[in-house]
Amino acid sequence: MARLGQIPHTPYYGTADATPLYLILLHEAWKWLGDTSLLHEQRDVALRCLEWIDKYGDLDGDGFQEYQMRCNSGYGIENQGWKDSGDAIVYPDGTQVKAPKALCELQGYVFDAWMRMAEVFDVLGEREFSGELRRKAAKLRHSFEESFWCDDIGFYAFSLDPDKKPVKTVSSNPGHCLWSGMISPERAERVVKRLFAPDMWTGWGIRTLSTQNSAYNPFSYHRGSVWPHDNSIIALGLKRYGFSQEVADVALGIFEAGSLFSNYRLPELYAGVEKEPGTFPVPYIEANVPQAWAAASVFQILQALLGLQADAPNNCLHLDPYLPEWLPELTLRRVEVGKASVDLRFWRDGASTKWDAAVQEGDVEVKQQTWQPWSVE
Is 150 helix (H, G, I), strand (E, B) or coil? Predict the structure, then answer.
């Protein structure tokens, strides 16, 4: 396709989220590997990413990340977040939102990236820079709450439209902001309840778009389907704010869906039809199977269930497990944290979850610790 000049495969870099997500990945890799040389090697790349966020991610200097095709050239893709189909971003009445668009999760990714990079630059001894990143993150969180929260629907806006008005469409995207740790803890419960309302929760997972939206189509790509990777990111967010039972609900929905596909392979997405006795998840006709981030979602959901957080630079592994009744015991072998490996065993004891750790190699301390939203105070 590249040889034939097919757009956007020539190559093409129409993405608004890859840059902050790279910074998140760099920090997460460091936390699991414990290799500070990685941070020194990638320092200049990280700086260029941070520069891109300010210069190119924020198109109009208002502090939010927006995207649009360059000069409205008509070449490339209309939507440059993870929901990249051309018809994915809609108003509550189902009409299309025009560019530039400021998706809610883009703000969360940048907030998370800034907080993580502040920790990185602390380690690199550049505390003046890390302080600046924390101040920017605090300002973004405040602006996000003011501009994206919609009290009349009890939810965060899907996006801001070209006039900077909130798009009051109920979608799965604010769940990514739970993962980023940017959402106000006081509003988290309302967000979670909305994600699990019948118009969003299928029983097989959380839909990409509410059934109440006029554009809803359970068999579409991004307007009502269920994506395992989307649900796994939301699951980490649910855990971060202390909603362990809801994490287990997502896990059960995704795992049961996976058990009904050939070779237990989760597809890229499947239809957002309601789970009922005798029904099964309907695959999207062109879904990739196998698909990398669908496969990876299983491990991310397990991470959420167990509350696993690595701190390899300090030879620590934190956990906060919750096993539901349908998963009474679980064993992970040779979990690698830095140069160490550890076997972890979890089991239900009444309504609580107990655990035991056996270090197989190296030096690592395993501690119980809950995951919290970022503090910018």
Answer: strand
Q: For 139-148, 215-224, 247-256, 280-289, which range has the lowest pLDDT when averaged over its residues? A: 280-289
Same domain, residue pair 123 and 272 = no
CB atoms within 10 A of CB 146: 8
| Among 56, 319, 87, 351, residue whose Cα is nearest residue 221 | 87
pLDDT higher than 70, residue 8 = no
Q: How, if at all, do strands 316-319 and 309-311 pair?
A: antiparallel
Q: Are residues 6 and 153 in the same domain?
A: yes
Interior/surface letters 335-374, b for 16+ CB within 10 angstroms, e for the rest: bbbbebbbebebbbeeeebebebeeeeeebebeeeebebb
By the 10 Å C-beta count (0-12 exposed, 13-18 middle, 19+ buried), 333 is classed as: exposed
Q: Which two tokens stand for residue 213?
A: 């939206």
Structure tokens at 87: 């018809």
- Confidence band of 73 (pLDDT split at 50, 70, 90): low
Helix (H, G, I), strand (E, B) or coil at 331: strand
Task: Please tell me the predicted confidence (pLDDT) of residue 11.
Answer: 73
| Domain limits for position 132 | 1-195
Query: Could you give the dihedral angle defined by the CA atoms of residues 354, 358, 364 and 367, in that order, rounded to the nearest 10 degrees?
Result: 10
